[in-house]
Each structure stands twice: as C-alpha cells, then as structure tokens.
Amino acid sequence: MKIKTVEVNRYITKSKIEGIDFVINPYVGCPNACIYCYASFIKQLTSHKEEWGNFLDVKTTNYVLKKRSVNGKTYLMSSTTDCYNIYEEKYRVTRKILEELVKFDFNLIIETKNSLILRDLDLLKQIKNVKVIMSLNTLDDKIRSDLEKYSSIPDRLDTLKELHENGIYTILSISPIFPYITDYKEIINKTCDYVLEYRFSFLTLKKDYKREVLKYIKDKHSKYYMEYAKIYLLNDSSYFDNLKIEIEKYCQDLKIKYQFF
Q1: Cα dist. 197→157, 191, 255, 258 in Å?
Q2: For a pLDDT cut of 70, what percent of the chain falls above it?
C-alpha cells in the first residue's frame, strides 16, 4: 500500500447527488479494493500508477468549516472512499472532521463497510440527524472476500446491531446486487430487527473493471456466466427489470422502507 499525506484546500466539495448538499472524502483511494467499485475512476483524475485499492492519500487542510456552510445542510461522508477504512485508526482524519462538525446543526449520512465507525459513537450521538449506511451483497463471507478486502460479514452485521442499539438510524445497502448470487431475501430476513431502511442497487459494469468481474464469474461461478454475458455483453435488461418488481413487492408486503439507487 502506497500512502502519502496531501494538503488540500478543504475536505468538502459541493455535491451533484440528489438530496446531498456537500460531500466529504477524507481520503483519496480506498483500501477496501472492491473489484466492482465505481470510484476506481478516480485513478483517471490522479497521477497514481498503483492498482485501485493499493494507494491512499491522507488529506490535511487548514480550512475551518463555517456555520453558514454547515447549518441546515446535508453532508455525505463519503462518496469515493471509505471514511472508516483500516488506516483511519492511525490517521484519524474522519474523527477530526466529526469533532469540528458536531458544533453545528446539520444532517449527516455516513457510508462505510467497517466497524471502526463504532469508535466514534460518542460523536455520532451528538449529531441530531445522522444516518449510517452499511453495504453488503451476500451473507457468504467467502464470496465477500473474493470481491473486497474489508470487512467481514459478521463484523458488518454486529456493527449495524450496535449502531441501532445506540439510537443511530441504520440503513443497509444491498449493493451491488450480483445476478443469481445476491440473495436479498436472506439478507433482509437476517437483518430486519436492527435495520430501519434498505437500499438496493444493481451491479453495473464499467469498462474499467468489466473484464475483471466477468472473469471472476467465469472462474468462480461458471454456471452463471452465460446469464452474465446476456446481461452485460448483450445488454439484456430483463433480469433486473423483473427483479426490481419482485423486490418492490417483497418490501411492500413486509412494510419495509426501501429505495433503489
């Protein structure tokens, strides 16, 4: 892993995401190294030669957040990195940002896959409107480890439970849904006691990582390869069209709060 410290003007950037005013990315790069990660496009904007997941820029700044740019706004942490990646334990950039943010009255959404977020429960409890999104797309930790480095499925489920028990609004993102592999019903049944909302997104394959994901399917889940070829090489949308209808009915029948992304 190549790690360096970089000075930036500010941590926050204006958001293009609907419902989000500003995004905070404390790091450039992400050690989770998910093979399907859309954020790998970041490499095209930087000078990094390393593979996605093998570099991390630790941001520092002297910029001080101002009340008028925070109060009443909605912040997302993070959109192109995991703000609680394993190196946050050492560098504590995310915690420093939270220590500054708690002075204000704002809405915060945190996306992470790592249990390190529990370290900052003391700060999260001071934020009136905070939601935490944890993502997974399988309960099989072997499949998880094939697709991404961190963290284990049991760790994520335990983290969601503890957040819920501490009064934090919990969201589980079943994302990305891998055709014929992700069992969304199994995941919902396992987690519905401590998850307040579900979000779903389907696997999309950009050219940067399309070959790698299809090779993984061919090597590890060969019985599904022709179906993946139909979806991702022949652009047949019927699988996901039908699945969306099925998920909607399932969630509505169970009166589960859900969204698609």
Answers
A1: 14, 10, 10, 6
A2: 99
Would you list the domain boundaries of the chain? 2-209+251-260
Gyration radius of the chain over CA positions:
19
pLDDT mean across residues, the chain: 94
Answer whether 152's CB lies under 8 Å from 141's CB.
yes
With a cut of 80, say whether residue 45 has pLDDT above it.
Answer: no
Closest CA to 231 of 247, 258, 213: 213
In this structure, what are the phi and psi dihedrals at residue 46, rounded to the nearest 5 degrees? -125, 180
Q: Output the CA–CA distances (angstroms, integers) from residue 170 to 51, 65, 73, 136, 156, in the order listed.
A: 32, 26, 20, 13, 12
Q: Which amino acid is at 80?
A: T
- Give me the mean pLDDT over the 240-244 stretch: 98
Q: Alpha-carbon distance 99 to 19, whole Å?
A: 24
Q: Which two tokens stand for residue 250?
A: 């399932």
Does residue 78 have a cis bond before it (omega within 30 degrees)? yes
Which helix (H) or strand (E) segment holds residue 51: the answer is: none
Give how far Cα 242 sits from Cα of 42, 142, 245, 246, Å. 32, 28, 5, 6
The pLDDT confidence band at residue 209, using thresholds 50, 70 and 90, is confident
Q: Is domain 2-209+251-260 classified as CATH 3.20.20?
A: yes
